[in-house]
């Protein structure tokens, strides 16, 4: 495993206010542990006081400054480790929704601070030790960090009058729960209590894709992750994703990626860097 999966960046304590330069590849998400001091982020220099866990998706690269006396540790996270950490359980929906956008989770409860410090240290030790670097171990540490953030994070409430955004958000939640069940779009609309045509219009207006395209993209993202990170035969992957047999899964995958599942698995085993990130596309682009 190489730095295409995750990267650790430690920052020394700031002696004076200085810009914090994030040294991760494009499309990597950023998870920052501000263990003391003050962090300023964005053009408006929003003030965050430590200890805190802060996150920015791969689609954004934050402008960060550390005040004097402040210290931070950062993790650069690929789409793949995020998929591995979030998993595919019903509870995973909340983690996926957590990392859709930037967040700042204040760690006000004393017991959580040493736990987060240990998890960052364990993550760093795993990355620094060449004979270790287990994706399963790293994704487990990340999952614990995200769960910690989820338990203390209070997202800003939606403004009134944004019913359209709320419907799309609820639709995504349902997709996460049922994409392996191959629900018809009409079933999603019924569960949401909206007309099929209205759901279709909202998805097209906000994302540029139809509801069916969004469900299919979620299935493809999961299929790519399993083909890349597991040695399971195609028949088992097909069954896990709700397909009646391997041939239907292969047909579905090829129709949407222009290659068979076997060809994709062979290619990702050879590629690296930007070529692999482009081929992996899925998690951060959905929807």
Automatic annotation (TrEMBL):
SMART domains: HTH_ARAC. Coiled coil: none annotated. Residues 169-267 form the HTH araC/xylS-type domain. One of its GO terms (molecular function) is DNA-binding transcription factor activity. The keyword Transmembrane does not apply. The keyword Disulfide bond does not apply. SUPFAM superfamilies: Homeodomain-like (SSF46689). It comes from Pelagibius litoralis. It comes from the Bacteria. PROSITE patterns: HTH_ARAC_FAMILY_2. This is Helix-turn-helix domain-containing protein. Keywords: DNA-binding, Transcription, Transcription regulation.
């Amino acid at each position: 495993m190489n730095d295409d999966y995750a990267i650790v960046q430690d920052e020394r304590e700031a002696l004076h206010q200085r810009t914090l330069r994030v040294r991760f590849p494009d499309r990597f998400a950023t998870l920052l542990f501000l263990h003391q001091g003050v962090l300023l982020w964005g053009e408006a220099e929003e003030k965050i006081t430590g200890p805190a866990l802060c996150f920015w998706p791969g689609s954004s690269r934050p402008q960060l400054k550390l005040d004097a006396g402040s210290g931070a540790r950062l993790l650069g996270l690929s789409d793949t480790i995020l998929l591995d950490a979030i998993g595919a359980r019903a509870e995973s929906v909340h983690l996926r929704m957590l990392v859709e956008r930037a967040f700042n989770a204040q760690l006000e409860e004393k017991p959580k601070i040493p736990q987060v410090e240990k998890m960052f240290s364990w993550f760093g030790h795993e990355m620094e030790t060449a004979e270790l670097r287990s994706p399963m171990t790293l994704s487990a540490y990340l999952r614990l960090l995200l769960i910690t953030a989820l338990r203390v994070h209070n997202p800003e409430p939606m403004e009134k009058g944004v019913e359209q955004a709320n419907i799309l958000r609820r639709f995504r939640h349902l997709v996460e729960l049922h994409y392996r069940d191959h629900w018809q779009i009409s079933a999603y609309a019924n569960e949401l209590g909206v007309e099929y045509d209205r759901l279709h219009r909202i998805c097209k207006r906000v994302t540029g894709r139809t509801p069916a395209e969004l469900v299919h993209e979620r299935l493809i993202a999961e299929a790519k992750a399993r083909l890349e990170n597991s040695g399971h035969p195609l028949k088992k992957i097909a069954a896990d994703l709700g397909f009646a047999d391997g041939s239907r899964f292969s047909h579905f995958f090829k129709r949407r990626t222009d290659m068979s599942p076997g060809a994709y698995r062979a290619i990702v085993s050879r590629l690296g860097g930007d070529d692999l990130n482009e081929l992996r596309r899925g998690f951060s682009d959905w929807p």
